[in-house]
Amino acid sequence: MTVGSFRVGLDVTFDLDFRTTKSSGVLLGVSSQTTDGLGIELLDGKLLFHVDNGAGRITTEYQPDVEADLCDGQWHSVSAQKLRHRLELVVDGKKSQAESPNTRSNTADTNDPIYVGGFPEGVKQVGLSGSSSFRGCMRNLRITKASKTTEVHFNKALEVKGVQPLSCPASPPAA
Ligand SMILES: [Ca+2]
Prior knowledge:
Elements: E1 11-20, E2 25-31, E3 37-43, E4 46-52, E5 57-62, E6 76-83, E7 86-91, E8 94-99, E9 115-116, E10 136-145, E11 148-151, H1 154-157
Antiparallel strand pairs: 1-6, 1-10, 2-3, 2-9, 3-4, 4-5, 6-7, 7-8, 10-11
């Protein structure tokens, strides 16, 4: 399994931490160029997790009580789990869920790069609503599939063709 060509399939979990001062930005996306894909994004202060298994998009979201909570320049944790046609999202320990009524459509059939922090123009991402690049910092990106966890090293990810470089300043972003 590499981040250069990834099959979402039946079940997968993405974990990561981020910090930013922008209310919108793509955290992660992997998508076929037809109908199937997965995406995690910040959109107007909400954290959205989308999956399309090919029969329409399923979305679960975390909306903080305070609008700017997720873009306060502090670290926030995200765990996004796809279990067939069900989604479970945990942001800073708070859980939200969604499921598709279409239980027979349960695999996201991708064989495509995982884009972290943004994606190139002209690349279709069925699991994302926004297209603005993430500005800030990410750490501890882990992909778990069939009980096997892969830690994605950003330095390595930069070398994989198609993975967008990620700006990760040494000092915290200005509040
Ligand atoms: Ca499918």
